[in-house]
Amino acid sequence: MVDKQAIFNGKPCDRSLVANRGMAYGDGLYETLLVNDGKPLWLDEHLARLLSGATRLQLDIDSTALLEDVRAICAPVKGRRVLKILCFRRSGGR
Questions:
Q1: Which of 11, 13, 33, 43 is the most exposed place for a label (fewest CB within 10 A)?
Q2: What distance lies between CA 78 and its chain's CA centroid?
Q3: Which domains does the chain have, with CATH numbers?
Q4: pLDDT tier for residue 71 given thresholds of 50, 70 and 90
């Protein structure tokens, strides 16, 4: 069984996010990283790359909140898992 959880602004949310620009237009970016027994590998490098891309796309990301969310999600993980971080522009017009 695979656990799936979507978080938006630090709170669990509906995974459908149908009005989302990231889902509708690919207006965002992501990082995929390995988590081994609660420890995300190469976390600093992944977050630096993600935040650099967000700056280029002019996405406003709270890096402190993101780091806290990643650590909270990863902490209870046993064994090896993959974490995919998705960042996207808020819903809206073109």
A1: 11
A2: 20
A3: 18-88 (3.30.470.10)
A4: very high
28-36 vs 39-40, strand pairing mode: antiparallel
**Torsion angle of C-alpha atoms 59, 63, 69, 71, degrees rounded to 10:** 140
Q: State how far the Cα of 1 lies from the Cα of 33, in Å rounded to an integer.
A: 19
Mean local confidence (pLDDT), 50-76: 95
- Reported as type and span, the H/E element at residue 23 is helix 21-25
> For residue 22, what pLDDT band results from cuts at 50, 70 and 90?
confident
- What's residue 1's pLDDT? 46
Q: What is the CA radius of gyration of the chain?
A: 14
Contact (Cβ atoms closer than 8 angstroms) between residue 69 and residue 9: no
Starting from the edge strand earliest in sequence, which strands make up the sheet with 80-88, in order?
A: 39-40, 28-36, 80-88
